[in-house]
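Let us work through a complete example step by step.
Step 1: write down the sequence.
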Amino acid sequence: MSKNIFITGANRGLGLGLLEKYAQKDNHVIVAAVRDPQSESARRLADVATGEGTKIVVVKIDSAIHEDAISAVEKIQKDGISHLDVVIANAGISSIWPLIKDAKIEDIDAHMRTNVYGVVSLYQATRELLKASVELGKEPAFVLMGSMAGMIADQPPIPNSAYGPSKAAAHWFIIRMHAEDSWLNAFVMDPGSRLEE
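Step 2: predict the structure and record it as tokens.
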């Protein structure tokens, strides 16, 4: 069955791995959202092997900029994409790991802007296209690439007062999306520990 997949942070790490897997399937459209479509890693997406009838569409989304998700969705709609089956909120930042006593509000805010507000913006921008998938008899999904750093009960043994709270908040929003939209499969996927670029 053909699907329309939307992945943020699709030009490297886990996002690129997901894109490459979906691209192998036939008759899929993969929307690859990247911070800088002119970057070398984004330009290399044109070289990804694809299944028969599958295409990759690159759009710009800097998850820290609310309007980017709206603009990206407007662009794909103009390109003829009328529904989305899966949205994967993969883009995120993890740039500093201070103790709470040393944390700077601007560092916490930067993580919240990308890792939380960016997820909410993406959901708001893609929601109607996900709902359009239901009208086609499909079961759409909004997936957050989560992290054990966002766990509240079992704290990882590392200082993490900027990234951790942002992932905990993002996890909450996904659970709430699932509760508010009974037609949407919204869930967190935690890949475990791994080094990213």
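Step 3: interpret the result. The two ends are 33 Å apart (CA to CA).
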